[in-house]
Every structure is written in C-alpha cells, then in structure tokens.
Amino acid sequence: MAGTQGDCSFLDHGVRPEPGGRGHAQTQVTGVGGGWRGRRVGVVGWGVSGRAAAALLARHGAEVFVSESRPVESFPSNAREELFRYESETGGHSRRLLENDLLVLSPGIDPRIEPLSDFSGPIWSEPELGFRFLPNCRIVGVTGTNGKTTVTSLMGDLFASSGGADRVFVAGNIGEPLCAVAEEISAEDTVVLELSSFQLELIDSFRADAGVLLNLAADHLDRHGSLEAYHAAKWRLFERMEEEDAAILAVTDEKIRRGMERGMRGKIYRIGEEPYSPAALRGIVTPAVLREVKAFENAACVVAAADHFGIPRGAVLEVLSNFRGLPHRREVVGTFRGITVVDDSKATNVDAVRNAIVCFREPIVLIVGGSGKGESFTPLRERRDRCRAVVAYGEEGRRIAEEIGAEWVGPFEEAVRRAWSLAEKGDLLLLSPGCASFDQFSGYAERGRRFVEIVRGLVREGNVS
Predict the structure, then answer these.
(1) pLDDT class for 260, splitting at 50, 70, 90?
(2) Domain ends where: 275, 300, 322?
(3) What is the pLDDT of residues 18-70, one digit of tens each?
(4) What are the CB-based long-range contacts (under 8 Å, 24+) for 309-313?
(5) Are residues 53 and 163 in the same domain?
(6) 213: containing domain
(7) What pLDDT is stored for residue 36 in this prediction?
(8) Does residue 10 lie within any of the structural domains?
(9) Do 285 and 339 fall within a single domain?
(10) CATH number of residue 91's parent domain
(11) C-beta separation of 371 from 438 below 8 A
(12) CATH at residue 203
C-alpha cells in the first residue's frame, strides 16, 4: 500500500529497550534534533482521534494541517473552535495533503482513497503516533473481531486492583485516544489499549508487552477488501514482539490456530488448551462470571495476562467476580408481558449475532439490520430454527431478509414494533443487528438506547409489566 512503508528517517527514532525492559524508550519522541519541531504533519479526520493527534503534535512544534471530508458546519462549536487553530480544509481531501512529511489517519479514514494513495511518505494510525510519546511503560494491546471492549475493561480492572502499576490508563477504542493521555503516562504506569483493525493496519514501530487476539471472524470487509486483509491487520499487533513479550491467543478459533503457523516471537499462551482450558479454569471462570463476561475466552485471556505479569490468581478471581457486563452487549433490559428483552446493539457483525443466538434457550424474535460492511448473512441460516421470527430493517434489511428468510421493515422503530407484536410469552426479544448503525444512528450506543426507549413505550401503551 502506498505510503505505509515510506521513508521516515527523521521520525523513525523508535528505540527498543534492552531485553527485559517493559516498554518503549523516551527517545522515540526526541531522537533527532528535537524531533517534531517544524515537521509538516497532515492529520486526516477531525473526530476524537484526529483532534487528540493534532493537539499533541502542535504542543511539540509540528506544523499541523487538518483535512476533513465533512463540512465545518457539521461539527459542534467546540470542535470548530479547535479546528480553527490549525491550517485546515473541510468538505474533502485535496492534494495539499501530499505536501506533508507524515500523515496521521483517524480510524474511519481509508488510506486507499485519493489523494492518500498517492502519498509517498509514512502513514500512521493515531495509536502509532501516541506510542512514539510513551516512556518505558507496560503496554497491553487487545484486539479481535468481538469482545475487545469487555476484555480491555477487565484488563484495566486487573492491573488497577493488583497494585502492579502506579496508574492504569485504558485507551484506544475505549475511553480516550492514546494521543490524549500519552504525555501523562510515566514509566511506572500500565497502558491497556483496545485496538481495531483500522488502527493496527497503520502501525509501524508499535510494540505491546502483551498482545491479546480473541477471535477472527468476517468484519469490515467494505474497508479491507477481503477477509485475508482484515485478518492480516489484526495479526500486526504481534509483528514487533520480543522474546519476553506475551502473545495471548484464543486457539479455540480455528482461524487463529492456523494463523499461528506464520510464527511469532514471544511466549505464546494458548487459550482453550491446558492450562487455559475450561476444565482447568472452572474454579475461576464460573457460570456467574460467564454471564457477565459473555465468553470463556474473554475471562481466560485475563487469567493468562495475570500469569504472565505475576499477578496472583486470587486477584483475578476478585476482578472477574466483581465485573458487570458492559451496556449493549447481550444486556438484559427486563421482562415485560413474559417477554425477556435483550439489547445486543454492539453486535455489529454476523459472527456476533450467531454467538448471541446460541447463548439463549428461549425462542427468539430477532431484530437485524442497519448499514452494511460487506458481509453475507447466509451463515445465520443454520441458526434460523432457533428464532420464532426475524425482522430485518434499515439499509441492509431487504438483502438480509432475502438471504435468511426474514420479514423486512425499513425504519428501525417500525421494526421494533413489529418484532414486539410477534413475540409471545416465554420468548426473548433480541436486538442483535449484525450491522453498523450509521444508516439511522450515530453509533451502536444510540441505537441500543433507542431500542430500550421504544420497548418501554410499547409496554406503557399496553399497560403491561
């Protein structure tokens, strides 16, 4: 891909610590004559990642140019005020970007679009930039198709409760961008990062002391172009590992097991095999824990990380036992008229929907749909008999209905109303869309909240509880 491996000698001053060091030397920032001062850096995308990257660069003397495809009027006033501090363009990306020494991309920006595809210099993701500003601290990176946020949260709780670090920073796709907190972090701290394929695709020197890969399914094919390219982006988390680092891999996923054949450095923890099998961990990963963490692999990866860093099993058990599931992830809203209502709005790919369906014993009335990411829904046919009814909505609704035999309703609210009308006492009404939400919502959280609002309104209309 053009740009990603371009000459970056003035920036490529990442210096690895000696073996046994936990993190990433401070000289990464200041390596060549002050490093950033006067360097021209294009920040592409003016979301939270782009804003954090621009501010960090500006504080270190870089000449920042911001490029945003949306019109300036679409941003809230505080974001507009921040934008006006920099030279910028809005409403599209021009060839002015090619005049920079480095480009830093927000996760939603595809590096293959014009004019980015013509850029001959390095292109980084925002976590790669933030990494360059970190001291010699412990870094744990978590990736996978599903379960990343849950495991990142659990890891944060683990390190915060174990006393193994002065402070714990949970960042990346959860919490704040790494660039927003990088300057606050000291060598005694731990950083836990949730990392998406978009972010990992454009790392260069980034290295984690422990990397976690939970699963590999089909997702974001509209962006990566193929399943192989999407999976390859995930594996980049492990490319720069050293012998003392940990690769925590859920080998219960056959695609991960096969991917290990490429070889990697570091100590490999095989989740699903002894000593990290369900039988071996039954005293820690209990049924009560599983109800909250959603998958055995999520909990077992935390156990492996604790073992690697010398954290007692008792501390792990306490963290897992006290954890409460995150919103919009198979979240039981309540039972109304004998119907159990579950918000799984975070299920934004087909594999997540399949996993949700098999978790429940009740007959299911399923709501699927939204904006597509290039996936086929035909794998759900094998689970179709677990559903009393399926209602598809939104941009992808008609196609999904044809592929799996569902009823198509366009608007989200009408789909929820229809699904509610089809549900009977003893059923489970499940919102598990399998798609992104951007056709009708700002994100999965807004979609989940609206689902709950609609259901509660229907309950009030029927005067039932």
Answers:
(1) confident
(2) 322
(3) 333 334 444 344 332 348 999 999 999 999 999 999 999 999 999 999 999 99
(4) 309/138, 309/159, 309/164, 309/210, 310/164, 311/158, 311/159, 311/162, 311/164, 312/162, 313/284
(5) no
(6) 134-322
(7) 95
(8) no
(9) no
(10) 3.40.50.720
(11) yes
(12) 3.40.1190.10
Co-location of 96 and 185 in the same domain: no
- Partnered with residue 90 across adjacent β-strands are 68
Whether residue 374 is found in the same domain as residue 425: yes
Query: Could you read off the pLDDT of 239-249 as tens digits, one per residue?
Result: 999 999 999 99
For residue 436, is it within any domain?
Answer: yes
| CA distances in angstroms from 97 to 39, 51, 103, listed in the order given | 13, 17, 8
Reading the block at residue 273, the tokens are 């095999």
Q: Omega of the bond prior to 19 within 30 degrees of 0, cis?
A: no
Where among 322, 350, 369 does a domain terminate?
322
The answer to whether residues 97 and 115 touch, using CB atoms and an 8 Å cutoff, is: yes
Does any domain span residue 38?
A: yes
Task: Report the alpha-carbon angle 297-328-220, nearest 5.
Answer: 70
Look-up of token digits 């089809």: 422
Per the domain annotation, does 409 fall within a domain?
Answer: yes
Q: Where does the pLDDT of residue 165 fall: very low under 50, low under 70, confident under 90, or very high at 90 and above? A: low
Number of domains in the chain: 3
CB neighbours (10 Å) of residue 461? 10
| 90 and 144 part of one domain | no
Q: Considering the entire predicted model, what is its pTM?
A: 0.85
Q: Do 407 and 379 share a domain, yes or no? A: yes
Identify the CA nearest to 211 among candidates 188, 191, 187: 191
The answer to whether residues 124 and 138 belong to one domain is: no
Distance between CA atoms of 284 and 321, rounded to whole angstroms? 9
Residues 120 and 151 in one domain: no
The whole-number pLDDT of residue 272 equals: 98
User: How many residues are recorded in the chain?
Assistant: 465
Q: What tokens appear for 67 in the block?
A: 């490029």
